[in-house]
Amino acid sequence: MASPPSDQTRQQRRPTMKDVAAAAGVSLKTVSRVVNGESNVNDDLRAAVLESITRLGFRRNASARDLRQGRSGTVGLLLEDVADPFYSILSRAVEDVAREHGTMVFAGSSAEDADRERELALAFCERRVDGLIIVPAGSSHSYLLPEIRAGIPAVFVDRPPGDIEADMILTDNRGGSRRGVEHLLSHGHRRIGFIGDAPEIYTAGERLRGYREALESAGIPFSDTLVAQATPTPASTAEALDRLLAGQTPATALFCGNSRTTVSVLRELARRSTRLALVGFDDVELGDLLQPGLTVVAQDPGAMGAAAARLLFQRIAGDAAGPAAGPPQTVTIGTRLIPRGSGELMDP
Fold this sequence. Notes:
Elements: H1 7-12, H2 17-24, H3 28-35, H4 43-56, H5 62-68, E1 74-79, H6 85-100, E2 104-109, H7 114-126, E3 132-134, H8 145-149, E4 154-157, E5 167-171, H9 173-186, E6 192-196, H10 202-217, E7 227-229, H11 234-244, E8 253-256, H12 259-270, E9 277-281, E10 295-298, H13 301-317, E11 330-333, E12 336-338
């Protein structure tokens, strides 16, 4: 019978099933049966194997097992920024669904850089992930076609892919924006400014459309002079407010296109004495503690992440009765208006 590995040997490498078999004095097949939870093992032999597993610190090689089954037990998640609160909630929801499927999640941030997105997505594919969930940064995703044809499904979240057909989980950006502007209109405002993200971003464009539709439905002409779109920075926000609040008929209310813009606007308004009604798209942490509380059109990033993960695992499973067998799916998640005070200020 082979001698069990020495302490020095165990420090140099991870213990294997062969090491467990040698330490327990049983066959490799017996260890395999115990590790895989099979019932046809003598109780004494099972106890010896389990004691050796504990003593040696053996861990089953799940990667090797999954690869033998044609899966890696991992999925890739590509976000704009894993530190952003919106994407943190979305990521957690993906993890929760993945855990139900015995799958780990690799996550990375694209930082709105199309080249970085491509690099990370292909790096995940090289590690043989079973599928991808992507918040797209670029407008071209044809680089994924060979991977998709090879059996790696992809679900896009928050924004559609640029040049391929694929599953999408989107927010009702236009409808949510329209509802937020209608809320300001209902409180007597007619000069409503829009401060949004860079215009080339899909969500920014959709939210501007909702803003425009709400005004036009109320019989108020759309005016470019009340719109400012740029990546939110202290300088861009100050410039936008200077323009929107200038002249004899300044804006009396603002609709902000995302949470970062809203926070930037709040910081700038705190330096001024201007009184404005304000509604933001996306909720903001501690927004309910402001005076007045921040009125928002809230997305549900948790629902988006969960829906994306469930659809991805349906594709991975190849369920002939579900969407895996059909054309790409588009799921739209609704928004809700949360009135807290800032959007209810009357037109002065």
